[in-house]
Amino acid sequence: MWSAVAPAPSALPPLAADRDLTVANWSEVVEHFREGLVVCDADGVVQHVSPVAERLIPEVTPGEPLAAAGPAPLRGDGPAEFAHHGRRLRVRPVALSHRRRCWYVDDVTESFSRADAVLAERARSAFLAVVGEKLGNPLHPDRAAAAVVRLAVPTAADVAVLVLAPRSGRARWWRAVRADDRPPVVDSGMLPATALPAAIEAGLAGAEPHELDWLVEQAAEAGWLPGLDAAGATARVVPLPGREAPAGALLVARRADRWYDEADVDLVRAFAARAGAALTTAMLYRDQAEVADTLQASLLPVEPASATGVQWGTAYRPAQAGLRIGGDFYGSHRLADGGSVFFLGDVSGKGVEAAVFTGQLRQCLQALHRVETRPGRLLKLLNDALLETTQAHGQGRFATMVLGVARPHRDGGLTLTLAGGGHLPPLVLRESGEVEVVPLRGMLIGVVPDPRIGEETVHLAAGETCLFYSDGVTEARGGRRGDEQFGAERLLHAVTGCHRMPAPALAERIEQVTCDWLAHGDHDDIAVLALRATGPAGRSPRHLHAVPDPETERSRELSA
């Protein structure tokens, strides 16, 4: 490279032409060059050293052989680049007349540093881009923490330790250790909050400890620096930003020959900022998932309470399987006189909103059954409560429902007093194998102030079953074309011959037959409640674990 006032090498009379000018004639010209010049005669003895060359390679003096005094790269025959006296030099030889040689010496320290800085910045940017990509996926704090320490090694550390903010008095930590050319080894552990090193406590409080020896000593005492000599290591601690307080603290350590300069610390801080954002997101997702799981658990149908002389069978499949909740519900409550109030219903809509409405219904029933046990009156009270709730919230939801009271007899039978609110009629499976449809009618619940409620009484002998179901069974669309409803007739056929089945097996069979009809297609919420009279002392029949063959049953009856 040449300065603006310097002529190109080919324009230099003594260097490009064969005119024999003395050094004195052109020294005044070359002293303005940005490059230094060293001229040697045919024997390699230095004849001239320009002022720039004197500053860059002071050991080269006129009258001395260049090979004896100059740096090793000047003894070769080609261009070279080397470090010398804290500078970066680039040299290139040019042949002159009479076997003389001129060495151009260029100080490229600044350009070399700029190039290094650009490369380093590109490497840092690439590293942070990878960090952003890798930390964008984990939505679980444990997986996010493990990813953080794994990414920190070896770019930012030979050993990286992440400590999350303590919960319930204990702090979880993750560590990644450099393992030569293999992926870093990651492990984890738990510490009481009172046993955390002081530097980590400071990091969790949002500070950035800078007592380097002290940091290494504490990390070594905690057993977090395997493979590193505490006397020959350097470390830093940075907090990981969170929502209101740091999400954790990151300890990075490596050998002292890779000291953390300001650029390295800035990189660790930028890395920690991204790690903190990922961890905060993961912890927020965890907290929301815990709340959602708790709410889901409270909205799931509750298994009926055990009652004397009653065997319950239930099946439930929400329309949106991922939510686990829907708009169908069932349950029961024991009464003080030994009976049970039970119910099965279906609210309008699907998903979370429908499930919340079912929760309101169940809560109302839980309170109202303590003051009213007559099914018809209880259903009207429930209707009034729902109307008040829906009008207050501007909702337009309604429900269909069957509500009943079961009271056991001494002979093992049951009397069911049923009240209907616009729901599908129950089925009764008699001991003889006959299937009866209970003509229970009524109006929707939650629509008008004084609905007409249907009422029926059903007597079950020991071993007989009453089956309740939602419209997700009869309105299931499937079949060969995929759009044909399952219907009441197919349901009657499906339960025929199942009169000796235990209640749980019967409910499971209805669900399975319906799902087979659907063939994995979309469907409404499906709910089934089976109530079976168990007989004296609550004994269930000892046989019948499967659907009997009608021909076999007919043969048995004839032989009897």
TrEMBL record:
- Name the keywords, alphabetized: Hydrolase
Q: What is this protein called?
A: Serine phosphatase RsbU, regulator of sigma subunit
- Fetch the Gene3D superfamilies from UniProt: 3.30.450.40, PPM-type phosphatase domain
Source organism superkingdom: Bacteria
Where is the sequence biased in composition, kind Basic and acidic residues? 546-560
Q: Name one Pfam family in it.
A: SpoIIE
- PANTHER family under this entry? STAGE II SPORULATION PROTEIN E, STAGE II SPORULATION PROTEIN E-RELATED
Chain residue ranges for the region called Disordered: 537-560
Q: Name one GO molecular function term.
A: phosphatase activity
Q: Which residue intervals define the domain PPM-type phosphatase in the entry?
A: 310-533
Query: Species name for this entry?
Result: Micromonospora marina
